[in-house]
């Protein structure tokens, strides 16, 4: 039987000065050198995406796979973390049908970067960019995100199991 699995992911990181701002594997130029704090590179969108993939197959979460107490993952490239998940034998035969995501950020303005972010995520999954949706919104000035202290991301993925011959 061909299988379909849905997965959901959420993440939030604090903003701080003197950090790179990476979203979906794309470096974003931000005023005042603000970027995302984290044990890894802080790519909140890729973390949500990775958790969505793990969730689809009930394989735990990104914190279990790549503990922030492990020095190996200090400053880690989040693209590499996602690649490691996708290369896991338990993911073999599963392909991304589509991915939808939302980045919630009061600053900086992300709309101009969305095409590049979609391309970056599509390349990581090896699928056409039409399968990747990235939406950006503010938090209407409310709470820590609206105050510009953090950026959050949500992602949903649908995976399908490819039929294996024989
Ligand atoms: Mg994270």
Average residue-wise pLDDT: 94
**Spatial order of the strands in the main sheet?**
4-1-7-5-6
The largest pleated sheet is described as: 5 strands, mixed
Chemical compounds bound to the protein: magnesium ion
Give the % helix. Answer: 25-40%
CATH topology-level name: 60s Ribosomal Protein L30, Chain: A
How big is the Rg? 16 Å
Question: Would you spell out the secondary-structure blueprint of this structure?
Answer:
Blueprint: E1 4-17, E2 22-23, E3 26-27, E4 34-36, H1 44-56, H2 62-65, H3 78-86, E5 94-104, H4 114-125, E6 132-137, H5 143-146, E7 150-161
Parallel strand pairs: 5-6
Antiparallel strand pairs: 1-4, 1-7, 2-3, 5-7
Helix pairs in contact: 1-3
Written overview of the protein:
The longest helix is centred in the N-terminal third of the chain and has 13 residues, at 44-56. Helix 1 (44-56) runs parallel beside helix 3 (78-86). The chain has helices spanning 44-56, 62-65, 78-86, 114-125, 143-146, and strands at 4-17, 22-23, 26-27, 34-36, 94-104, 132-137, 150-161. The strands form two sheets. It has a five-stranded mixed beta sheet. A two-stranded antiparallel ribbon has the order 2-3. It has a single domain (4-161), classed as 2-C-methyl-D-erythritol 2,4-cyclodiphosphate synthase (60s Ribosomal Protein L30, Chain: A), CATH 3.30.1330. The mean pLDDT is 94. The chain is α+β, with helices and mostly antiparallel strands and 166 residues long. Magnesium ion is lined by residues 11, 13, 38, 44, 47. Magnesium ion (MG) binds next to strand 1 and helix 1.
């Amino acid at each position: 039987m061909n299988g379909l699995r849905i997965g959901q992911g959420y993440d939030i990181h604090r903003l701080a000065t003197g950090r790179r701002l990476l979203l979906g594997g794309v470096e974003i130029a931000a005023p005042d050198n603000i970027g995302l704090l984290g044990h890894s590179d802080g790519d909140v969108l890729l973390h949500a995406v990775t958790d969505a993939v793990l969730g689809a197959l009930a394989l735990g979460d990104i914190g279990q796979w790549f503990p922030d107490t492990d020095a190996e993952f200090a400053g880690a490239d989040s693209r590499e973390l996602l690649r490691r998940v996708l290369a896991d034998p338990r993911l073999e035969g599963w392909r991304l049908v589509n991915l939808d995501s939302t980045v919630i950020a009061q600053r900086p303005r992300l709309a101009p970067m969305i095409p590049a972010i979609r391309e970056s995520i599509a390349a990581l999954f090896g699928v056409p960019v039409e399968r990747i949706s990235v939406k950006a919104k503010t938090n209407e000035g409310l709470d820590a995100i609206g105050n510009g202290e953090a950026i959050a991301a949500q992602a949903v993925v649908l995976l399908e199991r490819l039929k294996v011959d024989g």
